[in-house]
Amino acid sequence: MNLAVVSFGPGALTFIAIYLLSLIGIGWWSYRTRREDTLREFYLAGHGFGLLVLVLTLYATQYSGNTLLGFTGKSYRTGFSWTMSVHFMTAIVVCYLIYAPRLYALARKRGFITPTDYLHDRFNSPAINVTATIIMVVALANFLLAQLMAMGRALEGFSAGTPRQAFIYGVIALALIMVIYESLGGMRAVAWTDAVQGIVLLLGFALVVVLVLQKYGSLDTTTTTILASENRAKALPPDAAKCREWLSYILLVGIGGALYPQAIQRIYAANSQRTLRRSFSLMAFMPYTAALVALIVGVTALANIPGLTGAEADKVLTVVLGEIQQDSRLGYCLVTVLFAAILAAVMSTADSALLSISSMVTKDLYGRYVDRNAREQFLTKLGKIVSWVLVAILIIVAIRMYDSGKNTLIKLLDRKFDWLVQLAPAFFIGIHWRRMRSGPVFYGMLAGLVLAVVLAMCGHGKIAGFHAGLYGLVLNLLIALGGSLLLARRPSIPQRYRTANP
To answer: How many domains does the chain have?
Structure first.
């Protein structure tokens, strides 16, 4: 099938290049303005996030390449039932409210830097620390891999060269820029670039809705076209099986998304609890500016650009913009801005994942179990080395996965949430319930993880519409809660967790 592909001219390429180089400039400025050479400064920006920066960095981090490319591709493959994406992105904010305010208060008192710092403080269990850190690192590596693939997909639809060449160039170039500014400025650079990228995203999402509806017609027209085609079932109300899958995504993504390590570190970095609560109030409306836009683009493309299958559907957004680009000079200019927005979404999420991985590997694994006397300056440098090595490895993996053509962005998304939800008992319940004990929490976490991984490896990523991770979470909860109740008479809980919520 011949897809619309338009190469950018010198003017557009210059604009995009200036935008990308400006990110390195922000990283350099962040490096120059750092206050001290410590882990807290590098990974939390000294607890200095105000409302605007916090909202924009949460927004830019939460809405990633999966939203722009993966969600449009999923909408294209499944149709209107992917409306669930709006709901599960809202569910993330609801789940934040379960534990974030209390976690923030504890983090300020106890000096937490990584998510594992809370677990160490609460349960004092090396087994929980190591298991949870591995879960988060592996899940984030999976997430980072999805972002690297999204970088390549973003360029793939706009290149006059072969798709494979465009994919490889996109992955390498954008990953290199990202790791440079992240290594220079740490969390401050990431947050400042996120603030810029968040603004670009908001403008870009608004533009894409206007351009798509103007070119292809209203949603009413789109729905009528789909109902009259062989894809008619994708415009009909969901059946019982699809409703179960809908509920599964809301639970899985709502819980798992609220436990993103990079999101937890942003909770730590807020300058006050009032700022944190106000940012969550604003974030509740953000799914309508991102997930809903991806849905509109995906179903519109389904009606007007049929024939994309499998992982090929993940580049449907770039195909749509390629067609819009051909219409007029104005369309060409607007698509150039939108392309920058796509890069913004991917890079702003990838840099946050990379920073969190480096903090956990260096502080939670090396600093806690290999060399407890390591200086903070050394750990900071080690974290930067970890970032570069990890990016190099994942670039190779991303290229090989592209060549295999087996994994879509949404499949990668599903797997990481299967793992992250196993942390829910420790964070959601452990922070409030003083009787929860370390032994049951560890064995529940381990059992839930093993069950989720085994089911997925055996080809049962979903059973009766529910994700394998949720079955693991049920087993996890039974062990963690049941075991804690059996051990409830042993008064071995830290005093600070016995008090009422601050």
So the answer is: 1
